[in-house]
Amino acid sequence: MITSHPPATSASPRPVRKAVVPAAGLGTRFLPATKATPKEMLPVVDKPAIQYVVEEAAAAGLDDVLMVTGRHKRAIEDHFDHALELEQALAAKGDTVRLDAVRDPARLADIHHIRQGDPLGLGHAVLCARAHVGDQPFAVLLGDDLIDPRESLLSRMLDVRERYAGSVVALMEVDAAQIHLYGCAAVEAAGEDGVVRVTDLVEKPSREEAPSRYAVIGRYVLDPAVFGVLERTRPGRGGEIQLTDALRELAAAGTVHAVVFDGARYDTGDKSDYLRSVVRMACARPDLGPGFRSWLREFVAALEDGPEAGAARADGRERRRAA
Hints:
Structural class: alpha/beta
Number of helices: 12
Largest sheet: 5 strands, mixed, barrel
Number of strands: 13
């Protein structure tokens, strides 16, 4: 049960302009595809997952983005840089549509890169951003956690930060059987619909130990005070420095709020969620959606005859229409 508690107030919290995108993970859940390709670069229709994340930050007004990467992640840096030879070739052909698509990633924001030398956890990755962020509040967007572009979660979190100060996390209610996969929050009412105060956090608790079914998902707006806490945070679950553990200390001081999110979110490092994200994004595209939705309806209707028969029947109809 969520109990009421008076909201915190702040005289004039500083505006958030910077975003940090941790993208140093090994992507082991998606092997062998991620053996040589960063998991964040797996395509969702025709853009890598991480581009949607940077577009989300830019749409919320965050024009300074720091990516925390690791070894074998050079493809991420290249994607957000200019590709002069490719741009020149497309310009020579007069292919302005593809030329804009190639140039867009480098124009989204002022993008910086730093490497996390050792894979010591999300908390350590955030701590790597300290010199770049300084004493300013900042957002953290996980590079493989995709929020549907039609949602406004990050903007809502920035609004909450402006009104309450402190730090803000995103929560999503999940099935009790899945709570062990996430950081889990104990919460109380903040006097506002969809906003709660976080009173405790536990990293990947068992179903029996979980204080709620509210899972922390990959969006944070953090007060710079988190850096001092992370510096003294000892390795926790998995032998890693957990951001959840640092936020737990801040929550105990009453300075962490949360936005409860019930929209479309995908973990693109998970095979099933990745497939769902591709289907949902393709269906929403005006250039692809009508034809793809038609094919998808036929495919699903034909599944009663078995997956292979359904695919063959839908593909046959598609070929006849094209002819």
